[in-house]
Amino acid sequence: xxxxxxxxxxxxxxxxxxxxxxxxxGIKGCEHRQQVQSGGADYGELILHCDATLPQTETWQRALNxxxxxxxxxxxxxxxxxxxxxxxxxxxxQLVDAYRRFLKDHHTRVAVGGAREIQQLGSAFNAxxxxxxxxxxxxxxxxxxxxxxxxxxxxxLMSIGDGVITTDPAGLVTQMxxxxxxxxxxxxxxxxxxxxxxxxxxxxxGTRETAINPIFRLAEANTVTALETHMRLxxxxxxxxxxxxxxxxxxxxxxxxxxxxxVLSDVSEKKALQKKIGWxxxxxxxxxxxxxxxxxxxxxxxxxxxxxxxxxxxxxLLDLDEFKPVNDRLGHACGDQLLKxxxxxxxxxxxxxxxxxxxxxxxxxxVLSDxxxxxxxxxIFGRLLDRLAEPYTLDGEVAQLTxxxxxxxxxxxxxxxDTLLRHADEAMYTAxxxxxxxxxxxxxxxxxxxxxxxxxxxxxxxxxxxxxxELFYQPKVDMxxxxxTGFEALARWRHPQRGIVPPGEFLHHMEDNELGSKLGRFVxxxxxxxxxxxxxxxxNDWSVAVNIAPQHFTAPHFLDDLKDAIARHPDVPPQCLxxxxxxxxxxxxxxxxxxxxxxxxxxxxxxxxxxxxxxYASLSYLKRLPVDVLKIDQSFVRDVLDDPGDxxxxxxxxxxSTLFGRDxxxxxxxxxxxxxxxxRLGCHIAQGYGIARPMPADEVAGWAATWxxxxxxxxxxxxxxxxxxxxxxxxxxxxxxWIKSVLNTxxxxxxxxTQQELTNHRACRLGHWYENHGRRRxxxxxxxxxxxxxxxxxxxxxxxxxxxxxxGRLAEAxxxxxxxxxxxxxILDSLASLQREVMRTGxxxxxxxxx
Length: 851
Prior knowledge:
Elements: E1 4-9, H1 19-25, E2 30-38, E3 41-50, H2 53-104, H3 116-159, E4 163-167, E5 173-176, H4 178-184, H5 188-191, H6 196-199, E6 201-204, H7 214-221, E7 225-234, E8 240-251, E9 257-266, H8 268-282, H9 292-309, E10 312-321, H10 323-330, H11 332-349, E11 355-360, E12 363-371, H12 374-388, E13 392-394, E14 397-399, E15 402-410, H13 417-433, E16 438-441, H14 444-466, E17 469-478, E18 483-495, E19 499-501, H15 515-536, E20 543-547, H16 550-553, H17 558-568, E21 577-582, H18 583-587, H19 590-602, E22 606-612, H20 619-624, E23 629-632, H21 634-638, H22 644-659, E24 663-666, H23 672-681, E25 685-686, E26 695-696, H24 700-706, H25 711-715, H26 726-744, H27 755-759, H28 765-778, H29 782-785, H30 787-806, H31 810-841
Parallel strand pairs: 1-3, 15-16, 18-20, 20-21, 21-22, 22-23, 23-24, 24-25
Antiparallel strand pairs: 2-3, 4-5, 4-9, 6-7, 7-8, 8-9, 10-12, 10-15, 11-12, 13-14, 17-18, 17-25, 17-26, 18-19
Helix pairs in contact: 2-3, 10-11, 11-12, 15-17, 26-28, 26-31, 30-31
């Protein structure tokens, strides 16, 4: 069978379907081909052809049926809707009317009725109306608040004391308040839309350079700029105002900048107040002169300038003399006026480049720069003092005033400004003490001494702490009984390098400071400890006298120190302690001194008034001070045989001690004759180099065991001469001095007598006594008559000794010296015999001749 084709087709039908539906339905005809093969043979092709006309027609018919059905349903629905709308027309009409009325009256609401949908619509309308009404009410309230805030902001902006300028982001002015208008000179209507740099022109106060506009600084920093000071605003008319300004950005909620606000303050009053306060802080309110604070700055500047100029700078300190009495007499108002007048006179006298400052009270400082010499400074100061000394007229009264001025010169006084003032102050006090109404240049050597004293005070303080001080003891003896009664404890400094330092080198450094009290506590404790040792050795009769420094005696803690020292030595009776005070300590505060002395008496301690007669003690003081002992100062005892004035003082003190019931002790006994005189005057307790020098504690017992009183004291122990016999004692003393002067020449000493006193035995002091007072009073006595040839031989031998020495015949001179010593003894024996004969015969009582 050959290859062929087999075609199968549907039965053709008539096409009744519209072409649009065919395109819309998408139903199309189709053809399918399939090769027919079997056993490897190709039998041809099978073709199946489907026509779409029938399914298209059937689909069209079904669609038409459904459309007819749907149309009927729609018709029914429209009929139902029409009926429903008709029944709800009244409710809808009411809803529309309510809507229209709501636009005018937000309180309008609709009655809910009709169909369920209409009811829902009415309820929705009412709910919407409620929400809209509430929203509108909230908006109204917010608008009201915004309106009030805007009004408040406007009022605030208009009434704020600072100037306010606002700008847009580009820096163009958008608003200004009246203060800003006044400060800038720009009316707001003209300033709006002007660049801020045109309206707000500022310069630096000091340099006058145009300052960076704060808006520009704000844009760079992107933050609020702090207040700028030292700025001046140049107004439109050229006037200037000191201001402070600050700026800040105006931001939206999202952070976008919509402009800037600038606040500027007029600080004219603030500047004026600051200037006033600054002036008051650096000036004296009364005289308008610089005060201490400004002076320090001026002085520092003057020193710095002087370092560059190499000229002289004078720093002076001036104090008005006797200002206080004038101020007290005329009143403080006149005192203030006087200070003003004195200030004006000083300013008239000084140069324009000089500085005059007031430290306070009546003290002024002068700073004179660019001086070429000391003479130039002294000329200015002299002229100034002369001007100040001219009379002042105050409220109809004439006041006289002078000034004392001390000054120093820099760089001759090469030191810092503070020290320059101190040096000028020291020189001023020197001027005052020298008589006032004068100027005085600072003495650098004196200052060096002061500094050296400070160093010595420091060294003494360290020595006290290191235990370098010890006590020496000077004996006090009873010349009448020939026994040791006690010792005066005297402080000595045993320096590691210098050895024993005498008290004159350290005691004055302990004045007016705490060292006096420290030394006093040491002396009290050490002296009482030494008395305890003496008592343990059986020396129970010895007492110890301790010197108490004035500042220690007047200190509030003195009695406590005394009680503490006594408590540490309970085995020492308080009666063994005697305190010695000087007049200055007692007289400074008599009431306090009397109270302390009474407290000491309660403790059983005696007190002595030391150096009596050299100060200001009077009968009144002596009456009010219950001291137990008066000590005659050694300056009177030392020359009592030579100086009638000293003799009168010694006799007066002894008499006062008797009248007031006080014991009396004489210091400074150096020769036996002084002791004899004291005994005859009624004083039998003495101390001095003629008895013993102060000695270390370990030498006291040995000295006391070997000490012997002078024999002449025993002779006159119980005899009191009349003062008319005093020259006899002086003659004995003078004779010994004459012999000593001649013998000293053999040891290289200088002859202390005149040639006439050497050659003429009637010209020496013994000869004067012999020919005058002695002959009138004792001339009838044999002993006296035998003395003249012996005295003449003494003078002849003295001349021979000097002649032999001059010729170099020293051995012969020594032989004659021994002979002269024998003659001296014979003269002294004659004088002693004369004294005994006076005692025996009582020449002073009945046979004495007129003196």
